[in-house]
UniProtKB/TrEMBL annotation:
NCBIfam families for the chain: thiol_BshB2 (TIGR04000)
Molecular functions (GO terms): hydrolase activity, acting on carbon-nitrogen (but not peptide) bonds, in linear amides
Species annotation: Jeotgalibacillus alimentarius
Organism classification: Bacteria, Bacillati, Bacillota, Bacilli, Bacillales
Domain of life of the native organism: Bacteria
One Pfam family linked to the record: PIG-L
InterPro entries (UniProt xref): BshB2, GlcNAc_PI_deacetylase-related, LmbE-like_dom_sf
Name assigned to this protein: Bacillithiol biosynthesis deacetylase BshB2
Amino acid sequence: MIEKESHVLVVFPHPDDEAFGVSGTIASHIKSGTGVTYACLTLGQMGRNLGNPPFATRESLPEIRKKELKAAANAMGLTDLRMMGLRDKTVEFEDDEKMVNMMQSLIEETNPSLVITFYPDYCVHPDHEATARAVVRAVHRMDETTRPKLHCVAFANNTGEELGEPDVVNDVTEVMDIKLNAMRAHISQTAWMLEDLEKRLGENDPEAIQWVTQERFFNYRFDQGYE
């Protein structure tokens, strides 16, 4: 049973970040009547997949990914989608305070009881790391008595060894089809992965089934992290 929230703020840097890790959780909150805001920092302009033969150019890819992001939001029932206008693969070079201020403004406006993002140092991509640091710093600067919960996605190879088992495991079996549809919406980047995933689901592969029915999060540990 996913805990009831007053509002959820999700912050990731790229279109499709939400689909892989948290689309089931987003859909579950929406189905329970909880408002969800998703702030996507870039349009994934530098996504590596342009097709073979190419279906897009560097110039046309942003518009394709923007349409896919909107389609994924529709699949999840998400109505509050924010496209924050940063450029893919440059988030790490943005001014730290500018990034923190952006996150503080989002938090002040949406007043979430739960914020979802990546876990700093355990999310591999430089844009992921920069996003996570900014969110953590914005939440950390809040008074402890009014801070929202901060659930973080972590998938670096050393996650289990250093963070242990996830603190929160959401069962999203009831919205598994919505999760798959959110991933399908980002087809320009997910086609190769979805083909393999759906084949494995058809074979009742336990790992594949777990991947689409459970979403895992770590509570951010403010006593050992960024200030």
